[in-house]
Here is the input.
Amino acid sequence: MSKPLIALAAVLFFVTQVLAQTANLVVQTGHSGPVYCVVFSPDGKTVATGSADKTVKLWQFATGIQIRSLDGHTGPVTSVAFSADGRTLASGSKDHTIKLWDVRTGREIQTFAGHSGPINAVTFSSNGITLASASDDETIKIWPLASNKPPLTLKGHSGAVLSVAYSPISNILASSGQDQTIRIWDEAGNALKNIISGVGAAKTVVFSPNGKTLGWGGFTGIRLWGVELGQEIRSINTLLVSTVAFSADGKELASLDDYGILNTWAIDTGRHLISFNVNSEAVSKSERRGTAAVSSLAFSRDGKTLASTWVPFTNGVYDDVRLWRSESAEATRSLVGHTIEASFAAFAPDGKMIASAATDYRGEFEVRPIGFWRGHVRLWSLVGDQQLRSLEDCNAVAAMFAFSRDGRTLASGGPDGLCVWDLETGQTLRVPRVENFQQGLVKPAGITALALSPDGKTLASVGSALGRISTKDIALWDVAGGEMTTLLRGHAGRVNSVAFSADGRTLASGSEDKTVKLWSVSSGAKLKDLDETDPDTRPEVSALVPDFYRLRNSLSVDGRFKVEPANAGAVQISDVRDSKILATLIALDETDWAVVTPDGRFDTSEPLDRIVGLHWILSDDPMTPKSLELFMRQYYEPGLLSRLLKCRKDGGCGKEFRRVPSIPSIKRTQPKVHVKDAPDSPR
Here is the structure.
């Protein structure tokens, strides 16, 4: 190729890259469930976390700002690991898979499926050629990353493999298991002779940075093993150790126990250095005794910071990822967002409001026969300025909603019970006590379907707190008196939808048994039993109960828009015609909110000069979050949600919203302002 052609090709490549630059608006939601694992990137600038909310999140270490969320797993994420060059992240999950991610773009590179049980640990080899995974299926698999060859399966443990680690100086692999053994494997997958037994169920096994020492912790304490010597070189007496980590210089070892106590130790002498409680809640040892914990520890590259997660199995208290100064035990910051999880959303009958359920995992935890976190009901106005109200007076976890036809009353239900609200006052009306109904105890399932009669006087519910009512039956309640009046039985499968007719005399119910049944509300008699697979069923049901299919699919009154919950407490609105996501509604706290569109337009209740938790990630500098004001003039749209829904109906969104300019055309340099003198303003 001639030099001019080479130069032209280079220019075209550069132009293509520039034009492809994008700005993604990130709302710092944080995890909406317990965090199970944490790890620093090799350069120490990024922290990766995995959670029960099925996501991996990347954070900028220096600021604690969330860079992006990696979504794709269908089960809790139990382990994360960076490759040696920091470009790739591996995540293991209880969904039995391992995923590889491009750290800079957040793109999923590959999924490895082959284990028959949950993944407990993942680790890259020092040369980056292979990835090892440990699983409940009693095996370790070594996955070649540069070819499509099948994984090498290592068998030897007689129970779940809890941890796996590569030596940093060779391809020797160490593993720990529930069979109370530590096993060391060569690069061909052969188990070496020095199997270490009788160590207790060591949850974590790690190599020192120089590869000469192997450390692990368990019920009986911490042990350090000389890899070359083939024998124990030190034992540290501290019980119920959940996880251990070496500092980057190999001089210190940190441990975290099932009580939430973090200790650091000098490697050369075993001397105890510092001890502190990572759990922010006051939970006594007696309350934690006998519990097991999922926890994770990681040292920063310079050894000055420790990142910790701690999640006990038997109560609702847990912490976010917390960062500590390793010398003083001083907490520097937590990697947090808005720790709520949306579970259900519905349009109000007049189309002017959306209700969403949000379980607040940071809220009050109550000890009951079956414990649940407290829930919040959030009301989103689709018109006017008041975008969000929060109803919190009821102790039930909201997982299902039903509006009365006049929109004045809202019923919410979940695994903890039922609540009925007067929306004009925000007050809780009489709460039906589902657990008082002593009809045959079944497996707890919570409320699975809910409906209010048009006049708001009768409530239909399916399922209950403590499982007192089967999910195959429908209970009718007198809202004013709080008493159940009728129990409708007849479905052979779980009832997943109920709706009243416009006159309130008929109730329609749909079930997993593929039938739709029509009931008399006054007598409880079954009027019709219809086969849902019959094409004549839908028009017949719609004629008698027009709202049945609309409510089942969470559609607006006109059937034009669909609302459904999304990750991290968000609610998504999409257009039914093309399934396009129009906007995401995010509750930042009890009163503040943000609305974001896929192209980056946003609106928020917070003052523009004090917005916290929203920032930009640019494709040409993806690991450095940029302040919101950088593109505020181009992307901020007051009244965004109501304007968007209106123009989608009218077909005039092209005129309603100005065109968003390309990122390269926007001047990013922020002016420097120097104030030399600020005279007092005249009075």
